Amino acid sequence: MSFKTLLIILALTSFSCSNKKKEVITAQSDKPNIILFVSDDHGIDALGAYGNSIIKTPNLDKLAAEGTKFNNAYCTSASCAASRSVILSGQFGHATGSYGHVHDYHHFSTYDDVKTLPVLLENAGYETARIGKYHVAPEKVYHFNTVLEADPRNTVEMAKKCDAVLKSEKPFFLYFCTDDPHRGQPFTPDPWDAPNSFGNKKEGYKDVETVTYNPEDVLVPNFLPDTKQSREEIAQYYESISRIDQGFGKLMNMLQETGKAENTIVFYISDNGMAFPGAKTTVHEPGIKLPCIIKDPTNNSKGITSNALISWVDLTPTILDMAKVDFEAGAFHGKSFKNIVNETNPEGWNEIYASHTFHEITMYYPMRVVRSDNYKLIWNIAYQLEYPFASDLWAASTWQGVYRQKEEYFGPKKVQDYLFRPEFELYDLSKDPNELNNLANHKTFELVLESMKTKMKSFQTKTSDPWNIMWSHDASLQGSGVNL
User: Fold this and answer.
1) Which residues does 107 contact at the CB level (< 8 Å), separation at least 6?
2) What is the residue extent of each domain of the chain?
3) pTM score, two decimals?
4) Distance between CA 156 and CA 426 in Å, rounded?
5) Which class would CATH give 28-478?
6) Diameter of the chain by CA atoms?
7) Suppose 383 and one of 141, 171, 423, 453 were both cysteines; which one would form an S-S bond, judging by CB atoms 3.0 to 4.6 Å apart?
8) pLDDT in tens, 237-247
């Protein structure tokens, strides 16, 4: 081979490699950017877009006006860590070992072989970055390329730290998680009836306008007692949410300035309901029915309100689908709702499931849920136990105001009924949205109850739920006892 021939071959090889590189870059540039913005303990009770006329959330309301608002979006467990594992894995926590909190002595952790959303997106060429609350483990399972640091209570500061990610040459996945509006430390107030701060500070936060609320003006959800303590705490909760809204607005303005807004899909969700007794850690509606707003610029439809029943277990397959990343549908317990984002009443989206086992290690109270159309069944597996309190909810002045006065009722429910629950709770949400009339022992609803139990058993079998054993105490469900 002559030297001249060798040069020609090298030149052609170089040209070919260069073309391949350009093809890869072009292919990647066709992929949308994804922002998954997750707040901490934010219910649908406190958003203008969901009907609250008092709270000021103009930026999130704008997102809803420009995208799709889901009326029936559910987390699977009303507990921070357990819920976040589902968001990023597409699998129920009872199947991945993510039964509850990962931190301190709780130490729940996801199995090593679980393939999560950030890892799958990274393998597909995405820049993956996270900022703020993480609360999942182990890191190798929930790995992100880039970890950004900022005060998780100052969402404006958090947004500013994301500048380089928004300007990434690669398509990016930004997991943006606030600490707001979670209750603030210390959880136990002094005096006992002082409202929790919800992260608010008298001196405020840099570059954030402090938006305060008069306790007399707040809207008290139906499940809470309308007391001085409740109203004062809700006012603090609102203030924390208004801080979220400002940071979200800052992030959207920065995105617009990069010129990438038309190729970026934005999700706004929460991990579980408001941090008040009767919501967070429960599987009643205030605990698991959450805000979900999605803006997909590739859809021409705006201001859509969807009644589809979707679940956080659907998020990972949906985001992979939107990101044009191939995946095996059977790898997840959820399914992609990409194709129905702009539909109001899509067919086939009328059923969701929930699975809660722990919050803290001291709060063992497994519950399983199926909602099918308007019927909802809750199975309180450990119903013989007193319902356990999260430490922050027990100390809350909202609860202490009732507990110390030995009141009979907490909101519309008797305190005794809140603490001691029946094995089964069956509700018709179309007639009883506040879940006050348990139909489980009514003869008229025997067939409905059995049908819902059948659905629940099937769900548990399909998702390898260890608590399936409690139906029959069949020891074979425990398997071999060998870690394969």
Assistant:
1) 361
2) 28-478
3) 0.92
4) 43
5) alpha beta
6) 98
7) 423
8) 999 999 999 99
